[in-house]
Amino acid sequence: MKRGFIWLIVLSLVFFVSLLVSPVLASWSGIPDQIRLFPDSEFSLYVQLPFRVSDANGRDVTDPKRMFSFLAETIGRNQFQVRLFGIFPVRDLVVDVVPEITVYPGGQSIGVLVNPNGLVVSRVVPVRGVDGREHFPAAKAGILPGDVIVSINNQPVSRPEQVGQIVNQLALPNASLDIVISRNERSIQRKIVPILSVQEDFAGHQHKRYLLGVFLEDPAAGVGTLTFYDPVSGRYGALGHLIADGRGRSMEISQGSIVQASIDSIKLGLKGSPGEKLGTFQGERDILGTIDKNTNFGIYGNLAEPLAHPFFRQPLPIALSHQVEVGAAQIYTVIHDNSIRQFDIEITKVVAQDRPSDKGLILRVTDPKLLAATGGIVQGMSGSPIVQNGRIVGAVTHVFINNPTMGYGSFIEWMVYEAGLGVHREPDSIVTYIERNAS
Fold this sequence. Notes:
6 helices, mainly beta, Pdz3 Domain, six-stranded antiparallel sheet, Thrombin, subunit H, 42% strand
């Protein structure tokens, strides 16, 4: 009697543990919690034991071969349920039929100009004053590496040269300046006494200047690649990855822009040493668009005017993540001047993702011309669009340090939704878009 009671308890515990872990097991078995489909497409999913799928009315829709199939006929949301042993509900399965999205592939080389909300302190250093002694103005004011200088005497700063200009305009002997810093998302006010020092310029001439005793990071993010743009709304996406500061933290962007860039030369990528596109851009006179969003999937904003593409006269449909295949594909990028070129690659692995996450693709450069010119994937190529079977499927994001012929990519599905495309709204007409940006 006692033994039977113990077994009953054990079986009950096993049953309840199974219920608790079954949502995790459902994910491990390849059952997503959300699927996006375009109209007139069909989706099939093998449902592994011990799970089955039921519709909103509780009817089992798993066929005898353990397949769940769905034909997308009308736009809208369809609710299903994953059930343990076909009885106990463990998670929802949502099938969203969404409008097909078409955008132009990018490939243009861009310079990224970022005006963050302040400047990151990379180092705190001593200052030798005109009295010949070492002073520690920043350290004495309690400023630490990683702090963000937001303003000096209520004047916001966004470029390193601004700090020197403001300090030398306002500083007086032995007088303090009010400085606002941001640390761990907290705003802190401090007083700092600039130190008068003798500095030597490139020509060997000496000048007296007030210094704070800090090294600041230049917020210009360098050269990258445009991934896609929508000719109707004017929205674009680029880079495919986050812009971070020198400490790897997300950079909050207040007034950023992308500009035309020209590639002058390539630093060849080698094993253990990533290559790089070496380019130039003129700054604000060549602005292509604004930056209003900086995420794990790249930067986003509005173009100043529609762009032409040498390879595509019409926009291409995007591929949803489950439509991407292992096999041949092409990327579009610039390796000289500002001319977009097409190169062959191979997608070697597709990671099953039912929610936004980076590194969804692994790819290998196979084009001999690109390998000869760059050694594979190089810095500045981030954002280069990947096209497969007439659809945009993703963007190049990272290179393998020990094998520059290979790298990662993000799915275009996550990027276009991050840009705000595909939401249920009436888009601007192209006439409205051009008129708005011409004013």
